[in-house]
Write a structure and sequence with these properties.
The protein has 617 residues and is α/β, with parallel strands linked by helices. Helices cover 29% and strands 19% of the residues. The radius of gyration is 24 Å and the shape is globular. The two termini are 27 Å apart. The structure holds flavin-adenine dinucleotide. The site of flavin-adenine dinucleotide (FAD) has 40 residues, from helix 1, strand 4, helix 3, strand 10 and helix 8. Belongs to the GMC oxidoreductase family. This is GMC oxidoreductase-domain-containing protein. Its cofactor is FAD.
Length: 617
């Protein structure tokens, strides 16, 4: 029988919540803790799991039609299961530049600078991908390794990057928070010994599941926070089609991710008042009133400041006989899986023990690049990059892609429509820091109504020139890779028939010193159109309940307290005051560790134990 009275309730049991709840439960096993999740599925140990039949581990959100993208509606998914993003993500290990965290501190958040957060990043991990130096951890819960298989595309990338005249230097460690404009191998959140995904559910929460005071209610969705006056006292949630309530004596923590956390704040807060049916929310007054919701705390920043990153796939032909199978296994069908699964289960190695993203480059424009980028990029350079040598603008990696258009190609491979058994396409990933921000708001007080999401993708000319430059740069590198066999025109801009940039098939790579492709103005226009038609959002939303001063559109203070109310915190990627230029799992783990320390201190728990997690799954 699950009790209805708790000390702490988490609305959401994703990455950050698992860290905080796991740490607190370990530190004080008398704390009565509850977390909700919409779906319980066994978190995917590798990507193949996620495509198995059964409840969907994703929620798909649709953004408003975007004018800069020609009216296109972008789709972006977030996780819907215990462990959140950590249970479904692509397992790329990519830490943010130190100066991104210093920017958090300078936004009015003492205790949130790089010097404060980097030690937490070390405590999070057991680094198995090289030397454990002063920047890496050796005994944290989350394992980081190169996985159990090395792809040819990764090896070829490293060789081409070493010889490419416009290339950069090699580094053993792309993730020391400082080094930038270098290339190297890309580690993964995979345990080197077991070959399994290192998610927050398995390594923070489940190790505490023996604790009778820790409860995870699955197939439940937090609906709204219950208030007594301005003090949060519990949660109302849906389970089995009916509404239930649970009381939180000490704290309610909203941890529903950057899309859903602002929605829970805005939607409606149940207030014990002389008018029990009145609806009250936390957010922008004008927006809440539009939905007939009274205002408990007027916070216009709720749902604003939606930041993220952009992604683009384009398609060179690459020759990788064995990895065709890998790609098919992960993306389309299970036909080849049995042998790989047996290997993976026996020794944690093979094609199921990798994410297929083995090498990459963190690109930062140099003098020659800045000339190419032109005056449209000057403001971005001056505001974001010039004084922060650790910041890069693009992470280029060549992967066995799961992008939409490349999956179409994979289908062709499966159905024999490809030009040869030994050739198929793969798409490099592009990640960009964008300065523009969008918003996420409720459309109605009904918890089941989709959210209104507006992105600022490609609204600024800076993003357009940046994507154009990066396309040219990474295409040049791809042409020099040993596995290169030309390009698939449908996965590239529509260059004119007489263009030098026209896509062609090839028998092999160009010479490492071959002249670069010369692009005309018409080619540039074609590239920009291609980007408008194909750019996508990466799964890294953040910033929608920003930790900033209230007058600067902040939602939470540096202790993660929601302004204007008591006993209510937010802890997840939504609190990011500004963008981080990296994949976000690492930052979510850091926020979780920081939140655990803050809450423990407030509750008088002296030691948020960091020694309990040495477990294997
Ligand atoms: C498909 C995908 C691929 C990714 N790949 C990478 C990668 O390779 N590397 C990397 O570093 N990062 C990656 N990320 C990003 C990273 O995983 C996330 O940034 C991180 O997990 C976010 O943590 P969070 O705690 O903010 O939110 P989440 O982990 O998303 O947790 C929020 C949780 O709240 C739950 N929730 C929502 N609404 C409610 C409600 N009303 N009631 C109860 N629960 C609710 C959700 O189900 C979810 O589990 C990826 C993310 C996705 C989705």
């Amino acid at each position: 029988m699950i009790p209805t009275d708790y000390d702490i309730i988490f609305a959401g049991g994703g990455t950050t919540a698992c860290v905080v709840a796991g740490r607190l439960a370990a530190a004080d096993n008398t704390l009565r803790i509850l977390a909700y999740e919409p779906l319980h599925v066994q978190p995917g140990r590798y990507l193949f799991d996620l495509r198995a039949p059964g409840p969907d581990v994703f929620t798909v959100h649709h953004a408003n039609p975007s004018a800069p993208l020609g009216g296109r509606i972008l789709r972006v998914s977030s996780a819907s299961c215990v462990g959140g993003g950590s249970s479904v993500n692509a397992m790329m290990y990519n830490r943010a530049p130190a100066s991104d965290y210093d920017a958090w501190m300078h936004a009015g958040n003492p205790g949130w600078g790089a010097a404060d957060l980097i030690p937490l990043a070390k405590e999070v991990e057991t680094y198995q991908a090289g030397v454990v130096d002063s920047m890496h951890g050796s005994c944290g819960p989350i394992k980081v390794s190169y996985g159990g298989y090395e792809t040819k595309v990764g090896r070829d990338f490293l060789v081409a990057a070493a010889g490419f005249p416009r290339g950069r230097h090699f580094t053993e460690d792309l993730n020391d928070f400082v080094t930038c404009d270098v290339y190297g191998r890309l580690p993964k959140y995979i345990d080197a010994e077991t070959g399994r995904r290192s998610d927050a559910a398995h390594f923070y929460l489940y190790p505490q599941i023996h604790n009778p005071n820790l409860h995870i209610i699955t197939e439940a969705r937090a609906n709204r926070v219950i208030f007594n006056g301005t003090r949060a006292v519990g949660i109302e949630y849906y389970a089995n089609g009916t509404l239930h309530t649970a009381a939180a004596a000490r704290l309610v923590v909203i941890s529903a991710g950057a899309f859903c956390s602002p929605a829970i704040l805005e939607r409606q807060v149940k207030v014990f008042s002389p008018h029990p049916r009145s609806r009250s929310g936390i957010g922008a007054k004008h927006l809440l009133e539009k939905h007939g919701v009274q205002v408990v705390s007027d916070l216009p920043g709720v749902g604003q400041n939606y930041g993220g990153r952009m992604k683009l796939h384009w398609l060179p032909w690459l020759w990788m006989k064995t990895e065709v199978r890998y790609l098919i296994v992960h993306s389309i069908t299970f036909i080849f899986c049995a042998a790989f699964e047996a290997e993976w289960k026996t020794n944690g190695r093979g094609l199921l023990a990798t994410n297929g993203i083995d090498a990459g480059i963190k690109l930062r424009p140099n003098g020659q690049d800045l000339e190419q980028l032109g005056p449209a990029f000057t403001k971005r350079w001056e505001t974001l990059l010039a004084d922060a040598p650790d910041r890069y603008v693009a992470l280029e990696s060549y992967e066995n892609s799961t992008g939409r258009s490349s999956r179409d190609i994979q289908r062709s491979v499966l159905h024999g429509a490809c030009r040869s058994d030994n050739h198929f396409n793969t798409g490099p990933t592009r990640c960009r820091c964008t300065l523009s921000t969008g918003f996420v708001h409720i459309c109605s007080v009904d918890a089941h109504t989709p959210l209104e999401i507006t992105t600022a993708l490609l609204e600024s000319e800076e993003d357009i020139v940046l994507l154009r430059w990066a396309y040219k740069w990474s295409r040049e590198l791809a042409r020099r890779m040993d596995c290169y066999r030309g390009e698939h025109a449908a996965g590239h801009p529509a260059f004119g028939a007489d263009s030098q940039a026209l896509c062609r098939e090839a028998e092999g790579p160009v010479d490492i010193n071959a002249p670069e492709i010369l692009y005309s103005m018409a080619d540039d226009t074609a590239i920009d159109s291609f980007h408008r038609a194909n750019v996508a959002l990466i799964f890294h939303p953040m910033g929608t309940c920003a930790m900033k001063p209230r007058e600067a559109f902040g939602v939470v203070d540096p202790s993660l307290n929601v302004y204007g109310v008591q006993n209510l915190k937010v802890a997840d990627m939504s609190i990011a005051p500004s963008n981080v230029g990296a994949n976000t799992y690492n930052t979510a783990l850091i926020i979780g560790e920081k939140a655990a320390s803050i809450i423990a201190a407030e509750l008088g728990i002296r030691d948020v134990s960091r020694r309990w997690y040495n477990c294997r799954v």
